[in-house]
Amino acid sequence: MSRSWRLGTLLVGGGVTLGGLGIGLAMTAAANGASSSVDALRVGDGSPSACYRSKTGPCEALAEAVTEMETFTAVAGIGYAIAISAAVGTSLLLLLPPPPPRPRASLRPSARVTPWFGPGGGGVGVVGVF
């Protein structure tokens, strides 16, 4: 029991860790690509105030690219947080002692006959494990 409990914990925790790390790495790469787009879309002298309150086409494209980059960066952070949390949680779980074995239920065949009576008559019911 101890070995299967530890193996299951390791597999699930390791899978969540790798999944979070994969999300973090993929979104970091996407954020870097979006950052290149932001650099290419800089307007005027490249200062952030060049598009302040401007609704022109280049400024709207720049604002969309910045929003996309910030979204990718936020999702990357969430992925890394999931990976770190899963790795720490799995490590702590593996340090705990294994759960105690469950007592096995007796599976001997048994039956119980119970009479019942009601306003419309009566009968006999049989309940059991076969």
UniProtKB/TrEMBL annotation:
Transmembrane segments: 72-96
Keyword Membrane in record: yes
UniProt source species: Chondromyces crocatus
Source organism, top-level taxon: Bacteria
Keywords, alphabetical: Membrane, Transmembrane, Transmembrane helix
Protein name, UniProt field: Uncharacterized protein
Keyword Transmembrane helix: yes
